[in-house]
Amino acid sequence: MNYAFEFGQVFAAWDELLAGALRTLWLSAAAMAIGMVVAVLGALGKTNGPVALRWLIDAYIELIRNTPFLIQIFVVFFGLPAIGIRLEADQASLLALVVNVGAYGIEIIRAGIESIATGQVEAGKALGLKPLQVFRLVVLKPAIQAIYPSLTSQFILLMLNSSVCSAIAASELTGAANDIQARNFRSFEVYFVVTGIYFALSLLFWGIFALIERRFLRQPAPR
Amino acid sequence: MRSLGLNEILFILAAARWTLLLSACAFVGGSVGGILIALMRSGRIKALRWFAFGYIKLFQGTPLLMQLVLAFFVPGIFGIDVNPWGAAALGLSLHASAFLGEIWRGSIEVVPRGQWESSAALGLRYWSQMRLVVLPQAFRIAIPPTVGFLVQLIKGTSLASIIGFVELTRAAQVINNATFHPFTIFGIVGLTYFALCWPLSAYSKRMERKLALASR
Fold it and tell me: Membrane-spanning regions, if any (chain B) (predicted)?
């Protein structure tokens, strides 16, 4: 092994890496937030909508889940201009991520809705809870408890997946890595450090999500 | 500029065999690694349990794209030349080892403790217990999530295009650069992936439902 490591040139570009990491976080958070709106609407449509709508939503879910994200982002970035919709790389990335996470989110939200048995709501009313209390204590909290693990791991998957947006030169962490290594040719060092940053972000969110679950969402022990 | 004709489309579709071959390689490599990781993770040696835990977390906590890029650059540091094909097969195999390892560990651990104890009472040692009693039961449980992961793996091979391996996605990019019909080309490629993945997803879902009914 005669390789001379030069991590100095990578850390010299720390401001670009920091900016890239912040863009990754922003992109992931925005995509998750908008994607959840899509997911809730989709889940409601799938549980209560007319048959044609249900079929359409199913087609959307299956299409997204069975094609690579890279192809989805190419269709959005290179394909949409053909029908007159021209997006910047960052906008196209956000749109593709929203479309992608929305499809996965629908099934998660639907599972949450279905986890509430109607008997529970009736029992809440029979105990004299007010409608708002029923919603808060009998519907919302158990539903969030039920979907919290899948939802949080979906967020981490989304964040890691957003690195693929570098393929259309979006300005996120992997994109920053591409820029830096194109300048100084220290490819291994740059990608090694950036992989470490992604891992640190994953560990951070795993920790935060576990803490929130322990603090706010722990189920009372069955008596 | 070239026009998009039957030849161009056939060129893209023919590249699907590289997607399939890469998926198969990664699945075989990942199965070998996955069995090792699952055995370490569910075994009795503490150091190996921790190693397997760290390995799984590392691959679950970093982007697949970075894993492939590092698989491309790391062998060079040790003076080993890898081509994009080798790097993609190596990276995807290591990736699959972590995910299959975690899936199979879960399948091994849901086999009831009583099965271990009764087979121990019959005088079986660890390997015989595993081979004759636990694994046959774990196998059934493991099928739906394993097939589900295979779909992830097939989709994941598209990222090999970024490190320069010419499979389905890269072939589409090449043809798109020459003809510039992105909507048609990436549409066709998307449908090709769908045709590969959807039957597997449907099978995985059906098996899962069957298993859920059987265990009720």
Answer: 20-40, 52-78, 178-200
